[in-house]
Amino acid sequence: MKELSKISVFTGILILISYCLLEVFEFSFVHPAIYQILGFLWFLYTSIHITYLLVAKNPNIEQAILPLVGLGLRFLVSLFTVMFYLIKYPENSALFVINFMVVYLIYVVFEITALLSNLRRNSSQDQNT
User: Fold this and answer.
1) pTM of the model
2) Mind listing the pLDDT tens digit for each residue in 86-119?
3) Contact predicate 31/95, CB 8 Å
4) d(C-alpha 30, C-alpha 19), whole Å
5) CB-based contacts of 30: which residues, under 8 Å, 6+ apart?
6) How far is C-alpha 13 from the chain's CA centre?
7) Is-contact 31 92, C-beta < 8 A?
8) pLDDT digits over 35-88, tens only?
């Protein structure tokens, strides 16, 4: 649950930053659907993380592969969502794709940073035992 609160706080910070860029400074490089992008990625990350927590309890599944499966699943769902959005709303498509990619990469960097800190902690625990 600690990870879910981290991703929620992180998303809140991104919403605040995007609000400032879009509404206060009125930058034209922020797509009006930025809040939907952030909401979608928050929902995707939390749902896959909850699924990960449920699946990780199964002793028959290799624990090391689960984060990679989650990363791949998030990528595929994001890719299909962007394709669907571009088919349904073709206006400002380049700006939407750029904004989505930037936010997606920010989330991936956040996830990898959190994952690496967990791996370091687990590695140090393994060396101590």
Assistant:
1) 0.84
2) 999 988 899 999 999 999 999 999 988 876 676 6
3) yes
4) 10
5) 18, 21, 22, 99
6) 13
7) yes
8) 999 999 999 999 998 998 888 888 888 777 888 888 899 999 999 999 999 999
Which residue, 13, 33, 11, is CA-closest to 22?
33
Could you give the count of Cα atoms lying within 13 Å of 93 in the half-sphere of its Cβ?
11
Reading the block at residue 38, the tokens are: 């952030």
* 108 sits in which H/E element: helix 93-128
Predicted confidence (pLDDT) per residue in 21-40, tens digit: 999 988 889 999 999 999 99
Q: Could you give the CA distance from residue 106 to residue 112 in angstroms, rounded to a whole number?
A: 10
The full DSSP string for 21-55 is IIIIS--TTS-TTHHHHHHHHHHHHHHHHHHHHHH
User: Exposed, middle or buried: residue 33 (CB in 10 Å: 0-12, 13-18, 19+)?
Assistant: middle
